[in-house]
Amino acid sequence: MDVVIVESPAKAKTINKYLGGNYKVIASYGHVRDLPPKDGSVRPDEDFEMSWEVQKPSQKRLNEIAQAVKSADGLVLATDPDREGEAISWHVLEVLRQKKAIGKKPVSRVVFNAITKKAVLDAMANPRMIDEPLVDAYLARRALDYLVGFTLSPVLWRKLPGARSAGRVQSVALRLVCDRESEIERFKPEEYWQIAARLATPRGDEFTARLTAFDGDKLQRLSISNGDRASQIRAMLESASYRVESVEAKPTRRNPGPPFTTSTLQQAASAKLGFSASRTMQVAQKLYEGVDIGGETAGLITYMRTDGVQIAPEAIEDARKAIGDGFGGRYVPDKPRHYATKAKNAQEAHEAIRPTEFGRSPKDVERYLDRDQARLYDLIWKRTIASQMAAAEIERTTVEIVASGNGLSAALRASGSVVKFDGFLAAYVDHRDDSKAQDAGEDEDDSARLPEIRAKEDLDKRAVDASQHFTEPPPRFSEASLIKRMEELGIGRPSTYAATLQTLQDREYIVHEKRKLLPEAKGRLVTAFLHNFFERYVEYDFTADLEEKLDRISAGELSWKDVLREFWRDFSSHVDGTKELRVSDVLDALNEELAPLVFPPREDGSDPRVCPRCGTGQLSLKLGKFGAFVGCSNYPECGFTKQLGTSLSADAAGDGADDGPKELGTDPETGEPVTLRSGRFGPYVQRGEGKEAARTSVPKGWEVSSIDLEKALRLLSLPRTVGAHPEDGEPIVANLGRYGPYVQHQKTYANVEAVEDLFEIGLNRAVTLIAEKREKGGKGRGTPAAIATLGEHPAFGGEITVRDGRFGPYVNVAKINATLPKGKDPASVTLEEAIQLLNERAEKTGKKPAKKASSTTKKPTSKAKAADGKADGKTASTAKKASPAKGKAAAAKSKSAAGKAESAEAETVPWDAD
């Protein structure tokens, strides 16, 4: 019997059915080792040697795997077919060798792009060895993320208090969002006018034509720049006569787009289904791993982390057959369609995302799937089927019209199109109005059908309309458009996008509002700092070039350590050069770069940097224990301060205090007043008065101005009992915690996608979320991982660590915990201060551990902990405080127990400094 290692338990069950009793399939639950958050995990001075630590939850699984391998005939590593999957196989094999469980047993590596019986059996028949260049690329990426994240972040903590972290790809993605916001702030709208005439043929059919030229001058979009000019032209057209100059009908063909890659699937799911990138990948993971289809468990789609657009020849034939059977022979093109990706640095190592069997139409499998799965499968199936269908045949008609009167002439144009043969558009027949236009790139103006219009005939004027417009700034990024831009620039990889965006939101660098990404003040400060003092490392080309080198390592063209040496030589010396950087220099640079944010223009046109309270001081950025704020230079005589991004309308008496409760209405059930208030921790709603009043914070991402009585009552209705768990009858509760929405059953807390879901989530969905969380090993909050290790206690002998607990930061040695003084920055705690606090705590509690010969403090793991009801969903990234001069920073890349998923190549980010 051979032991087969896969990543998830869901896959293990399915694959074991395919392989039969001669194999034992065991799940690794994703990565089993990681770089521990301590000095020396990556050692540049020792040619980038790396130390690995087995995660505590993985230790038991590895022991089980080792035990099974010892009694097996051989080992088959069948983790996912990408760089992270190759790395997991490598880690498992290294651990088994250390445990001496392998011996001389044969070891092979197999990969399958889909979890179907045929794909699995074909893979088992074609084993190979571990791809060493692919592992080298993983090691290089992991080391780079470690060194950048935990060498650069301590610089941020010292020079920009309140900043949390800086990562290799994360910082560049944040810069994209911040640069777009700066463009919007600098944008100055321009006025322009559009003129159109409503005309009618001699047969009475009406249509609209737009003005394209006047008095011999061709008109561009901004040519008519004021109302006076528009009125003159309109007056001429009101009295003009109209004649058709020409009518041209030109047949065109519109070809389908390629099947989905990871990024295009995330973009389409965002635009059409409203899914976030992480939600898309979670649903796609389940479709890939397999669902029960009438008693048979099968994967419905191929592997969902890919930047390739090609499809296997046998799959193309399967698609062509399904098209002929479902749509007719005319919809099958003469030759199969083949696609090549245009994305920068695309690897094309795998197929595009496609159905494993085209004969399984969305309607056939809908009853076996939940709503999200069915909608995403429908999207994938239709896009892939359309990609192999015949072109749509469209007749586009352009009508040129001449208007003349009062010695002047003007030209107008009307255009429209008619679909003569729908071709691939037939795949989208269920949602023609939006999907057809979006997938085909159809222009709204050209989609209208024109009536019969003949050349040289006169037309009647029905109306002339002149409309005023203003140019608009570039739109803020949505998740979909940011992913598209990152892909175009070659920044990151498909598996990094969702995790990178989530990290930026977790760090409170960006906020997701009305499906748009807005930079928070903290995020703009970090970006401005990096742009001024580490510009090279947040340049788009630099990051893309580094990605290209990682791809060349995968291809065996570059040595991974050569790439690290070249990078580290320049990067470490640059970090060393910031030692002498003064905080005043940082503030001067940020004041200038962030002027629109920090000193917004005033309505009266006065100098925005003059203090509104004392009238003589100059406003400037200040750095405090809770981050940056704006303050007066006359402090302490003038105590004016304001938070970044808030109004400066406060006068000399203003200090940022709120204007008091805002009445929203009365609760119809209790008769108590409901108010909107502002407190120390932000806005909240309250029902009633006094200590017994019910209160709930306004969720992050909700605009305070949008809170009305209905929304307030919904918030105050929490916690909400969803129902009784079918296994034990205990209640499942939906609630809003400090770090987001969640459902709870006993001591298990599971994240919910959006706050709105709390009011609608049903029992089936809640039970599923709870079960998935338990499968991943999430059972509440554990001991917080160490933020920093300060040294050994002279009396107690254990290592002193700094940790961020549920009730605030504290120092720890052995079993003694001492809370840091209020306002004390954890990053600034010294060994001497920690010893004093611990000694005082020991005296007070009577706990005095016996001195040990050496430190036995347990090494903290980098596993993210699921918070309890008050802190649910918080990812605790941790790292040890490090010296950038020596280049030894601590990494704490957070991984879920269920596997790599989106966190596989996520940014390495350290602890939350504030």
Walkthrough of the structure:
With 914 residues, this protein is an alpha+beta fold. Helix content is 32%, strand content 22%. It has 23 helices and 34 strands. The strands form ten sheets. It has a six-stranded antiparallel beta barrel. Helix 8 crosses helix 12. It is globular and about 100 Å long. The C terminus is likely disordered.
Strand and helix map with partners:
Blueprint: E1 2-6, H1 9-19, E2 23-27, E3 33-34, E4 42-43, E5 49-50, E6 53-54, H2 56-70, E7 74-77, H3 83-98, E8 107-109, H4 117-124, H5 132-159, H6 170-186, E9 191-200, E10 206-214, E11 217-218, H7 227-238, E12 241-254, H8 262-273, H9 277-289, E13 291-293, E14 296-298, H10 313-327, H11 362-365, H12 371-387, E15 392-405, E16 408-421, H13 432-440, E17 458-470, H14 479-489, H15 497-506, E18 510-513, E19 516-519, H16 521-533, H17 540-554, H18 560-576, H19 583-593, H20 595-598, E20 619-624, E21 627-632, E22 641-642, E23 662-666, E24 673-679, E25 682-687, E26 694-697, H21 709-716, E27 720-724, E28 731-737, E29 740-745, E30 748-751, H22 763-775, E31 786-792, E32 799-805, E33 808-813, E34 816-819, H23 831-845
Parallel strand pairs: 1-2, 1-7, 7-8
Antiparallel strand pairs: 3-6, 4-5, 9-10, 9-17, 10-11, 10-16, 12-15, 12-17, 13-14, 15-16, 18-19, 20-21, 21-22, 23-24, 24-25, 25-26, 27-28, 28-29, 29-30, 31-32, 32-33, 33-34
Helix pairs in contact: 3-5, 5-17, 5-18, 6-16, 8-12, 8-14, 9-12, 16-19
